[in-house]
Amino acid sequence: MATDRFVLPAPGPPATVAFPPVTRTSLPNGLAVWSVAHASVPVVSCALVLNRGTAGDPPDRPGLASVVASLAIESAGDRDSIALADALARIGAHLDVQPAADVTVVSVQTLRRHLPAALDLLADIVRRPQFTAGDFARVRELRLSRLRQASRVASTVADRALIAGVYGDHPYGHGALGTSRAVAEMTIDEVRAWWSQAWSPAGATFVAAGDVDARTIEREVARAFAGWEAAAEPEATPLSHDAAAPRLLVVHRPGAAQAEVRVGQPGPPRATPDYHALVTLNALLGGQFTSRINRNLREQRAITYGARSAFDMRRAGGLFSCDAGVQSDAAAVAAAEILREFGDVSVPGAVSAEELTRAQAALTRGYVRHFETAGHLARALVDLATYRLPDDTFDRFVPRVSALTAGDVSEAAARTLRPGACTIVVVTDLDRHRAALDALEREIEVISVEF
Amino acid sequence: MRVPFEKRTLANGLDVIVHNDHRVPLVAVSVWYHVGSGNEQPGKTGFAHLFEHLMFEGSEHHRRSYFEPLQNAGGTLNGSTSADRTDYWEVVPAEAVRLALWMEADRMGWLLPALTPENFETQRGVVLNERRQNYENKPYGLAQFTLARALFPEGHPYSWPTIGETADVLAASIDDVRGFFARYYHPANASLVIAGDITSAAAFEMAEELFGAIPAGPAVGPVSSPAVEAKAREVVMHDRVDLGRLYMAWASPALFADGDAELDLAGDLLANGRTSRLYRRLVHDRRVATELAASQSSRELVSTFQIVATAAPGQSLQTLRAAIVEEIERLRHAGPDEAELERGRAQAEAAFIYRVQSLGGTGGKADQLNAYNVYQGRPDGFDADLSRYLNATPASVRDTLAQWIDPDRATVLSVLPGDRDQPAGA
């Protein structure tokens, strides 16, 4: 068939993609073991999802979960800190430890032929960290320096101000790195106590994806993690509260070259029945380059390099927020426009059929991109484990999103978005740009953010 | 290690490289133009990068954003600019590959009719905001600009930042930009990779149909540049930071030249990661530094070898510098231990395997095939590239450092806590 060379071609019908089958088993100590075969490159991506994260920090010890994580990957087993790093480097393995809000994830990417050695090292880190006084002193000093450095980064200051403003004293209301005050007061005994409670097979899941069969994974995990004793499972994090009063929190940053703007509010947990409607809402509102907010602030007003909104959905609630670095004189315009976009999209009829179709297509046609590599598949399994999602979660996504109507999306928006109660954070040179904030018609609360 | 491919060159000079990988129904498209900020002239910097923005704003037969059709087809896309080259890429579901290729072809052949003063002004504003966000508003954000100005002689193509000087971006005219496009953005100065769930026959057929009619454009010669003299240079700047940071930099062997891989390995064993000599000494044992990094930034004309160290609170940069100089001198005279180098080789080999997991995007297989093709004229550079690392010896690392990395002839930048010397955005 002849086609006109100069007419934009439409994509063909989408392929149906199924998430590869997950093989599941568990060890007698309660550790769940999940794996997915992905034969391409001789690489295996593994992750151990521990059932406690930064929300489990004691109220007077923000940062404890993260200090434990940093310290566990220092000296472990019969190796000191340097020897452990050397052993990992000699097999080309990449180790990472991420303290998230609900879980702590220790992951390792390794060549297939080094899988047993990599799992031995992972087991040392998880089961046999040494927590020496020397490592503790050094890690604590480095953490204090890192906090000082972070306090100078405008975007980090803005993020920290937002979560504190939105969550208040809820366990999600502090950053993973903690505060200098808490880190300075921590003791090695607190580290040991937290580790012995939280780094336990109870409620933990080991996931693996790569060029390896499930029996090999099960055998190797059993070898490395058998006999690991379980502690009691932690108590669940209480649900985060509803939207607070509207606030305008301003951090004065002398000489700032631009303003960092955040607009946010509490959001639903990952288990919300509105999940698919809200993901679709975000795609058309602020989650993509072509979304309403970025088109407005970047492509029409040219006041930012980019603006993005996101739902951070967790076990016990979440955050919905939009962030942008903007010209200092445009901070109020940016915040006001973001709030207006939140409100506009919640009105019945606000979402046209065409806009909905575009967002659905972007999400459903592109879904396969999230499952391309072993690393992608391992991350997907980490999500299943973290949020205890049903087995068919990934296979339901495309049909669920495709079935949504424009009404479903704007109703979910109306149920969820509270532009009138959003917290606004602006990090800017207040001496030079105070007047620019008057347009928001909110009382300016000048705050300092604790690092 | 093999990444199988077929390569053909169209009559207009466009290299087309196809790699089949049918594991997932995705196709990666990568277009490299062999133009970067190094092709710019003093006073007219930032063009290649500004251009990267304009390439997403529409072309003659699709006079609107490039993001919309591709995102609505489930694709993802972006571009990036360096001193040497500019790349544009898409990763799309296999059923949208024709759309991605059509759009790349339309902006390669028919961009200028859609370039409007309004688009131009908008993207100029976006770029200035990008500069503020990524450099001016970040602690230490302007240090690399200062270091490059000090290391390279005036007028050297690597002496200005890829994002451009603010004054130049403000002064750029739409006619300047049109001229820049005509000279550099055409098939004879470009390379196209199509990688993923597609047959070679279909890929070459689409490439010929969509790109074949675009005129070749003028030949682009190599960039000429003044020599970089190896000599001591000292620069001090102040920034709103809490901890001082020391940068030591040298001009070093160009991308793929003798010694390039050796310096990459030397950077790792000197200052990258917990096993490195300087980390052990300065962070682990003496606790006088908080962060350390070394890099061999490989580029076509000349590379830069750099060590960066951040002081611990209360520690002077002089302490760090003395230790760095001592460790460099040790390596220049005795070379690394064989066991140390063995570890570096193992890491390099693993990194090469990890790198071929993704089809597209920055660093994916399509990007790497283009890199080897543009810089070396053949896409199958993987094995030869890796063998440079596997064949490095303690003696070759020692000799490379002895020849190039002389502590007495380093460019040294000290960033000290204080008020920023130049007002941000100036």
Please render the helix and strand layout as text.
The complex is a heterodimer of chains A (451) and B (426).
Chain A: E1 23-26, E2 32-37, E3 43-50, H1 64-72, H2 81-90, E4 94-99, E5 104-111, H3 115-127, H4 133-150, H5 154-167, H6 180-185, H7 188-198, E6 205-210, H8 214-225, E7 247-252, E8 259-267, H9 275-285, H10 292-300, E9 304-314, E10 317-326, H11 331-344, H12 353-365, H13 374-387, H14 393-402, H15 406-416, E11 423-428, H16 430-433, E12 444-446
Parallel strand pairs in A: 2-6, 7-11, 7-12
Antiparallel strand pairs in A: 1-2, 3-5, 3-6, 4-5, 8-10, 8-11, 9-10
Chain B: E1 6-9, E2 15-20, E3 26-33, H1 47-54, H2 67-72, E4 76-81, E5 86-93, H3 97-109, H4 117-136, H5 143-151, H6 166-171, H7 174-184, E6 190-196, H8 200-211, E7 233-239, E8 245-252, H9 260-271, H10 277-285, E9 289-297, E10 303-311, H11 317-334, H12 338-355, H13 365-376, H14 382-390, H15 394-404, E11 411-417
Parallel strand pairs in B: 2-6, 7-11
Antiparallel strand pairs in B: 1-2, 3-5, 3-6, 4-5, 8-10, 8-11, 9-10
Task: Describe it.
The complex is a heterodimer of chains A (451) and B (426). With 451 residues, chain A is an alpha+beta fold. Chain A has helices at residues 64-72, 81-90, 115-127, 133-150, 154-167, 180-185, 188-198, 214-225, 275-285, 292-300, 331-344, 353-365, 374-387, 393-402, 406-416, 430-433, and strands spanning 23-26, 32-37, 43-50, 94-99, 104-111, 205-210, 247-252, 259-267, 304-314, 317-326, 423-428, 444-446. Chain A has two domains: 23-225, 2-Layer Sandwich (Cytochrome Bc1 Complex, Chain A, domain 1), CATH 3.30.830; 247-446, Metalloenzyme, LuxS/M16 peptidase-like (Cytochrome Bc1 Complex, Chain A, domain 1), CATH 3.30.830.10. Chain A has a six-stranded mixed β-sheet with strand order 1-2-6-3-5-4, sandwiched between helices. Chain B is α+β, with helices and mostly antiparallel strands and 426 residues long. Chain B folds into two domains: 6-211, Metalloenzyme, LuxS/M16 peptidase-like (Cytochrome Bc1 Complex, Chain A, domain 1, 2-Layer Sandwich); 233-417, Metalloenzyme, LuxS/M16 peptidase-like (Cytochrome Bc1 Complex, Chain A, domain 1), CATH 3.30.830.10. In chain B, 41% of the residues lie in helices and 19% in strands. In chain B, the strands form two sheets. A six-stranded mixed β-sheet of chain B has the order 1-2-6-3-5-4, with helices on both faces. The radius of gyration of chain B is 23 Å and the shape is globular. The mean pLDDT of chain B is 95. At the A-B interface, helix 2, helix 4, helix 10 and helix 12 of A face helix 2, strand 5, helix 3, helix 4 and helix 10 of B.
